[in-house]
Amino acid sequence: MGNISAISTAPGIGGVAIIRISGDSPLSIAEKMFRPTGKTKVADFEPYKMYVGEIDCGAFTDFGMCVYFKAPKSYTGEDMVEFHCHGGIAISRGVLKRTFELGARPATKGEFTKIAFLNGKMSLSSCEGLIDMINSESDGEVKAGYYLYREKLNAKVKNMQDRLTYALAYIEAGIDYPEEGVTEDNFDEILGTLKEVKRETDGIISSYRSGRKIRQGVKVAILGKPNAGKSSILNALLSYDKAIVSPVKGTTRDAVEGEIDIDGVRFFLYDTAGIRESDDEIESVGIERSRKIMKESDVCLIILDGSEELGEEDSAVLAETEGRPRIIAVNKTDIPQKNGISGDLYVSAKSGENIEDLKRALAEKAFDGKIDLNADFLTEERHFDALKRTSSSLENAIESFGGNTADLCTLDIKDAWDSLGEISGESANERIIDEIFGKFCVGK
To answer: Does the structure show a pLDDT above 70 at 323?
Structure first.
């Protein structure tokens, strides 16, 4: 089997670097590299205890620490050793190089975590939660990743699988032993179980709309006629000047993107070119991109100029966004207003009036109310697809069972079980597994 080794910490200069070894004999490598300051020999190291000493890298020596993790109580489920050396490119690479010279091979992307998965230390969904946490840029993304990492979704999946296994056993017993077939009481119980599992599945599926936004961020298209103040609103929301502000109409010819955090969720703001008819070829391209952004956005923020009467261009934008999640903000409340302009909010990009209210309105519109990061959300598209197939199979199973076609029902239940197993990893194919672990960095 051998040993694998990699630098576990981020590359570059830092206070501490960690080099990790996992396999059948990492302690034998440590014996040749580490000289403890105390009397304890490396071979006699007490597991999970940090020892101080010299790390011999061949070309040079560093002073650091070493810890031994004994299988199966380690991250990978194998014996593991970690060297904690001084941070920096030369030192960490020197320690790593020495482990290779002593027989370890370089770990591939995510190989430590993949070994943990194959050894039953983590489910596949837990591994996905871990990479989500590592890549997170907001509180919401951390919490969503932690939900998966701590096996909370997997626990629900396993519970549903157990109940499907119970129902399947009863139905198959009735097929194999007709004289002991499903009784009326058992019929109601099994049908109730199938319906209950489907309800739970559909409930988890329904959380994906919000969960996707927490994980990927909310896209907001800022729309309106030229010179309505879209760029000024973007700058006000960002609290710094991102977009060029000019009295000349059509200044924004391409989308300008900014990012803000609202209640722990990332919001991507796109200041678009004004949607109107234009003879300018370059501006026309920008206008078409604006329409594309509008269609892909989660929320449309319509900016109306409160100092002018509602015009044809305003009406065109309102018509194009009809039926989409949108907020109509009347801008320029710092100057006299024209009567008849109505909206959801009245703001001033210049003075900052009601800009914080606008942020709250964006969050409420995106999540149909207040953002609750403590709720359990489905965040992974892969899980969403698997649960949709689970729900479809259960619907077929319920119909088959009610129609007394037991053979078809068992096939549908098995399909539902397998779809759930794709989430935990029990039924996932090698392509999916490789794709997931390919997202990890080397050393994790």
So the answer is: yes
Structural domain total, the chain: 3
Q: Are 274 and 249 in contact (CB under 8 A)?
A: yes
Q: Is residue 420 located within the same domain as residue 288?
A: no
Rounded Cα gap, residues 22 and 84, in angstroms: 15
Is residue 158 a contact partner of residue 132, using CB atoms and an 8 Å limit?
Answer: no
CATH code at position 195: 1.20.120.430
The answer to whether 366 and 211 are in contact (CB under 8 A) is no
**How far apart are the C-alpha atoms of 168 and 187, rounded to whole Å?**
12
Taking phi over 0 as left and psi of -120 to 50 as alpha, with beta for the rest, 277 belongs to beta
Alpha carbon 294 to its chain centroid, in Å, reads 23
* Paired strand residues for 300: 221, 326
Q: Which residues contact 273 (CB under 8 A, 6 or more apart)?
A: 226, 250, 252, 253, 254, 255, 283, 286, 287, 289, 290
Same domain, 337 and 396: no
Q: Are residues 9 and 75 in the same domain?
A: yes
313 vs 327: CA distance, rounded Å = 17
3-class SS of residue 175: helix
> Is residue 118 included in any domain, yes or no?
no
116 within some domain: no
Residue 141 belongs to domain spanning: 127-207+379-437
Give the contacts of 270 (CB within 8 A, at least 6 positions apart). 219, 220, 221, 222, 255, 256, 257, 293, 297
Q: Look at residue 397 and tell me whether its pLDDT is greater than 50.
A: yes
pTM above 0.90, yes or no: no
The CATH number for 228's domain is: 3.40.50.300
Residue 228: which pLDDT band, with cuts at 50, 70 and 90? confident
Structure tokens at 437: 């672990």
Measured between alpha carbons, how far is 130 from 375 in angstroms, rounded to an integer?
Answer: 18
